Amino acid sequence: MREGLIPAVLGTAVTASGAALRNKYPMAAAAVFGFGLAHVVLGAIDLVEHRNRSSF
Question: Which UniProt keywords apply (predicted)?
Fold first, then answer.
């Protein structure tokens, strides 16, 4: 499995959960949304770095 894929997929699920909570718990939803978005970004960085390393 490609490095960074799990954090990116998990971050997508957490981001969606944060978006779903925004009407009921706005402060908690913002925290969950940000946490998930950070995982998406970090997973994407790992995916790009792994792709560039394996091409050499």
Answer: Membrane, Transmembrane, Transmembrane helix
